[in-house]
Design brief:
CATH superfamily: MFS general substrate transporter like domains
Shape: globular
Number of domains: 1
CATH architecture: Up-down Bundle
Number of strands: 0
CATH class: Mainly Alpha
Strand content: under 5%
Order of helices and strands: HHHHHHHHHHHHHHHHHHH
Largest sheet: none
CATH topology: Growth Hormone, Chain: A
Distance between the termini: 39 Å
Helix content: over 70%
Length: about 450
């Protein structure tokens, strides 16, 4: 208990007229902003939270190295195979606003714990599925758990780190997630062919028990002196919470939220669709590579993500003016790279060009986090989770559109068994449809945005 010095240091009573006590110094307003401390405790809290996100990325990308195995196990074609990832991404995107509301109202720690349970349950069911229907349902449960991780980690970071570091910590969170992707492409792909389907996915599911224990026992979602529930100022009087619709409406009306959604939409989907499903089949069937060679190139995608994450994090931490140049440069480079690959004379482009486009797509994930930075910087603290959820829907909606479009085109262009290089070339032209839509919306919305 803090004791007011004025209450203990009083003058001795003296004869004479009674004087009014000297007024105490004015106290700081109850609603004064509390500056997060940062430091080792902040990094420790972030590392516990980010372990859940790494686990979620392992679960999310596990189908990317098992696509051909899944097609054989369930006896399905490209359209049905794409349904796995489409449903997973659809559930992820649909859950973003509900998850944002849950984080704002109940705190990220509880949401992370629920996410781990759903991830493990979905992956365990997928491990033992032998039919298309149950396997599809298990991927939906997994997508629901995945949706609860990233926003929760960003919310923890916002409570522990000063605002100037939020963009850097967001990029580092994405970088850590790419570590999960690296585990998938290097470890999980090998285990899948040495230990088999059920044993591999069961092992991945059981990883959740350890992560659950870490979060339950060690995670503090806010520093001492701050309330654990996000969106409530220190020592602020309790009041009625805003209605759910009003919360969503207020976040959506903010142009920064909508711009964040379209930035996330346009920058994330090419690399995401390639990593989640179509990268390995494209390289093996469309480019004639072995699985080992294709896995090596997918590893380059992960390493590219890590490198660009560090670069963009440093640029954004120095100046918010770097947001739009990063966004437009990544979109232009991705569009130009795929134009070269798809227009290259002959059936297959050279290896150096494939390496180049994969490295360029490594910038997609880090650039998509610029969208979340737009949403964060243009919304008050009490609706950060909701605004982040809206923005985080964008890239996964784009991914879903891309996965479905490529799958339908592949089946239409290759009615027989297997898919030719010609079919993959035309199917991947679908990338430009969502890219054109997203770029148009970004250019429209950036004119309405007030500087932040």
């Amino acid at each position: 208990m803090t004791v007011d010095p004025a209450s203990t240091a009083r003058p001795l009573p003296v004869p004479g007229p009674r004087r009014s006590p000297e007024p105490a110094l004015p106290a700081a307003p109850a609603s004064a902003p509390h500056t997060p401390p940062g430091g080792r405790a902040a990094w420790f809290a972030w590392s516990i939270g980010v372990s859940v996100y790494v686990l979620a990325v392992i679960h999310r990308t596990s189908l990317g190295v098992a696509g051909l195995d899944a097609a054989e196990r369930f006896g399905i074609g490209a359209s049905a195979l794409s349904t796995f990832s489409i449903l997973q991404v659809l559930v992820y995107a649909a859950m973003q606003i509900p998850v944002g509301l849950l984080v704002d109202r109940f705190g990220p720690r509880r949401v992370l714990l629920l996410g781990v349970v759903l991830l493990s349950t979905g992956q365990l069911a997928f491990a033992f599925s032998s039919a298309f229907g149950p396997a599809l349902l298990s991927r939906a449960v997994l997508g629901c758990g995945d949706a609860m991780t990233f926003i929760s980690v960003l919310r923890i970071a916002a409570r522990w780190f000063p605002a100037a570091k939020n963009a850097l910590v967001a990029q580092l969170t994405g970088l850590a997630g790419m570590g999960g992707n690296l585990i998938t492409t290097v470890v999980l792909a090998g285990a899948l062919h040495s230990r088999g389907w059920t044993a591999t996915f069961t092992t991945v599911a059981l990883l959740g028990a350890g992560v659950f224990a870490l979060v339950a026992l060690l995670l503090r979602e806010s520093p001492a002196g701050q309330p654990p529930t996000p969106g409530v100022a220190p020592a602020a009087p309790a009041g009625p919470r805003p209605a759910v619709r009003a919360q969503i409406r207020a976040a959506w009306r903010e142009p920064g939220t909508r711009l964040g959604l379209w930035v996330h939409f346009t920058t994330q989907f090419p690399g995401n669709a390639f990593a989640l499903l179509w990268g390995l089949p494209y390289l093996v069937e469309g480019q004639g590579m072995t699985r080992a060679q294709a896995g090596g190139l997918l590893t380059l995608l992960v390493l590219g993500n890590m490198s660009f994450g560090l670069l963009f994090g440093r640029l954004l931490s120095r100046s918010a003016r770097a947001r739009m140049p990063i966004t437009l440069t990544v979109i232009a480079a991705t569009a130009a790279g795929w134009a070269l690959v798809l227009a290259w004379p002959g059936a297959r482009p050279p290896l150096w060009l494939l390496v180049t486009i994969i490295l360029v797509m490594g910038s997609n994930g880090p650039a998509s986090l610029v969208g979340l930075d737009y949403a964060r910087s243009h919304n008050p603290v009490e609706r950060l989770g909701t605004a982040s959820g809206i923005a985080n829907m964008g890239g996964f909606i784009g991914t879903m559109i891309t996965l479905l479009g490529i799958g339908i085109l592949l089946d239409a262009l290759s009615p027989g068994s297997g898919y030719s290089a010609h079919a993959y070339r035309w199917a991947f032209c679908w990338l430009y449809a969502p890219m054109l839509l997203g770029t148009t919306m970004i250019l429209r919305l950036r004119r309405r945005l007030a500087p932040a």
